């Protein structure tokens, strides 16, 4: 997938999401500073493919500063609870890694 392929869901027309993600690699967004300012809400509005592509950025940012990540971990958990296509696009190893990050965020 090319970063230029990233678009919000068809029923969600938000120039902000397009501006934040289109044309960028996940590595360019893999810091809490880059994802700060409402970009974490985009977790709900990206296509399944875009969510999977940018998931590493959200995971890295979360591990960088769990408190500053705010709702990112919850957004990841929520998205994976209903997005079957995203789950199918991720390997077993990738899903295990996501689970480990979420356990780190929510130890209880």
In short:
The protein is mainly α and 108 residues long. It has seven helices and no strands.
Describe what you observe in this structure.
By secondary structure, this protein is mainly alpha-helical. The protein has one domain (3-105). The chain contains seven helices and no strands. 28% of the residues are buried.
Which structural class should the secondary elements be placed in?
A: mainly alpha
Largest beta-sheet details: none
Mean pLDDT: 81
Shape: globular
Q: Provide the gyration radius in Å.
A: 13 Å
Number of domains: 1
Strand content: under 5%
Q: Share of helix among residues? A: 55-70%
SS elements, strand count: 0
Give start-end ranges of low-pLDDT stretches: none
List the SSEs and their pairings.
Blueprint: H1 15-21, H2 32-35, H3 48-64, H4 66-69, H5 72-82, H6 84-89, H7 92-105
Keywords:
globular, mainly alpha, 108 residues, 7 helices
